[in-house]
Every structure is written in C-alpha cells, then in structure tokens.
Automatic annotation (TrEMBL):
Domain Methyltransferase: 85-179
Protein name: Methyltransferase domain-containing protein
MF annotations from Gene Ontology: methyltransferase activity
Organism: Streptomyces malaysiensis
Origin: domain of life: Bacteria
Pfam families associated with the record: Methyltransf_25
C-alpha cells in the first residue's frame, strides 16, 4: 500500500503524463476542461455514431462549459464565486479561467501536477487574465495558510483524491466565515458502485454522508445538495464515440496510442454502464463555513 505522500506523487505524475492526450481530446484551449458535461435533456444532441471527432469534441466542450454554468447557478456564483477563490485540483485551468472571465474572480488554481502550472498560467495570459489566475503547485491537504482568507473553494471532480477530513480541516483555516466550499463530484450510493471510476482515475469516491461528516467536524455546514446523475450520463456516450471515431479515422496513430485509446474506450463504456446502474451519483454540494 502506498503512503499518502506517494499517492499524491502517483496522481500528479498520472496527470502530467496525460497532458498531451487531454489537450487533444478537450483542447485546443485556452479553456480546457477535464470533467463530465451537463446535458439538460439527459440526451446527446449528436448522432454520435456518424459524427466526426471534431464535431463530437465540440459537443463535449459545449456541455462541459454547460456543467460549469449549471454549477454557477446552483452555487450563486455571481456573489459567492466572484471574489478570492481557490480552484482546488484545477486540471489545465479551464474552470479557473471560467470563474475569472465570467464572474471576475481572483483565482488561485491549485494543482499537484508540476507540468500543469505553466500551462494554466499560459492559458490565463492568452485570455488577458495575467494576475487574475495564479497557479499554485500544492497538495490540497497542505494548502499554504498565509494565502487566505478566501471567499470560496471550488473542487470540480477533484475532491475524490483528497483525504477529506484533512482537506476540510485545512480549508477551515483559509476560508472566511460565511464562505463556501463548492464541490462537484461522483459519490457512492452502494458498496462497489463506483469501482470503475475509482480504478480508472485512481480516485477514492465516498458517500455524501462521508463528506458531510468531514465538513461538520471542520466547522462547515451542508447547505446545497443537487443530483445531476441523469443529466451527465450522455457524456460517456459522447466520450466513447469520440475515441471510437479517432480510432476509425486516424491512420497516423502509433501502436501505443491505439492501445491507450482502446483502453479508454472500454473504460468509457464501463463508466456509462456504472452511471446507468445506479451505483454512483453525480452531485453538486455546497458547504458554508459557520
């Protein structure tokens, strides 16, 4: 079993190694998102079997942005996410740039993937956000205490990597009273309900109750809990369709690239089945500091 500090290194290296593939599938940027999309009708607008890779990618990107807009509505972003915020587990910075551009937030984009920090800041500069989005390479459980107070912390499909009691305890020192912790995440609804999700992404999903108990112990109260499982299920259909379309159309792929894409295709199909089987729940939580 890996020690906690070694797990952090493994996850960081995993995302460093995936950078080029993330840009290919979700790019070109500057707002690149690595999370599911939100489909209000619970259906993909595409005939994904006949669509080109570029058309599928365009739909995925539109609905990933839609997920952030849906989150913004739930969380009242115009007044809760317009000040100083932490984007914890920021990926390539798409969400950080979104909060800065759309709501004027001053964002500290936290990543434990060393290679991602200059990419995030480079994309921010492209958007004219120099000084509004600052990358911080840090383990989420050891956020610097001298950077606060922050008005909110946001974690979009990243909190499953954290030691939740330790993370909330750390946040209790940097989030101002009345501030928010906003989480979009995959939650377990029954034992082994999220095994594919956990194994493919190296994450450790938990129940909403687990989150709530960890938050309460650190002085946070759950105030919003919204289920969006059915509205995110079509993401896996589109993600699998993009992978299949690339495999079918790109003759320049190396054998290693083809192998990785076939593994990804199997995983995406399995994740769609996992979503549909009811063992996982995609939810939006907001905790408020007392």
């Amino acid at each position: 079993m890996l020690e906690p500090q070694d797990e952090v290194k493994v996850v960081g290296q995993y995302y460093d190694d995936k950078t080029a593939r993330l840009v290919r599938k979700y790019g070109p940027g500057p707002r690149i998102h690595y999370h599911v999309g939100h489909y209000p009708s619970s259906k993909s607008p595409l005939d994904a079997h006949d669509a080109t890779p570029d058309a599928i990618r365009g739909s995925i990107r539109t609905h990933q942005e839609g997920l952030l807009r849906y989150a913004a509505k739930i969380w009242g972003a115009e007044h809760r996410l317009s000040g100083r915020i932490l984007d914890v587990g920021c990926g390539l910075g798409g969400g950080s740039i979104f909060w800065a551009q759309e709501y004027g937030a001053d964002v500290t984009a936290v990543t434990n993937a060393q290679e991602h920090a200059p990419i995030v800041e480079g994309f921010a500069r492209e958007c004219g956000l120099d000084g509004k989005v600052r990358a911080l390479v840090s383990d989420a459980m050891h956020l610097p205490l001298d950077g606060g107070p922050y008005d909110a912390a946001v974690a979009i499909e990243s909190s499953g990597y954290f030691n939740r009691p330790q993370w909330f305890e750390r946040l209790s020192h940097v989030i101002r009273p009345g501030g928010s912790v906003c989480i979009e995440e995959v939650f377990i609804t029954r034992p082994h309900g999220a095994d594919v999700w956990a194994e493919y992404f190296y994450t450790k999903p938990a129940t909403v109750r687990d989150y709530t108990e960890a938050a309460q112990a650190a002085g946070f109260e759950l105030v919003d809990d919204v289920d969006a499982t059915s509205e995110t299920l079509p993401f896996w259909e589109e993600s699998a369709a993009w992978t299949k379309a690339v495999l079918d159309s790109d003759d320049s792929l190396s054998p290693v690239d083809r192998r990785n894409l076939r593994i990804s295709l199997l995983a995406n199909e399995a994740l769609g089945a996992e979503w549909g089987a009811g063992g996982v729940r995609l939810g939006f939580l907001r905790f408020e500091k007392k």
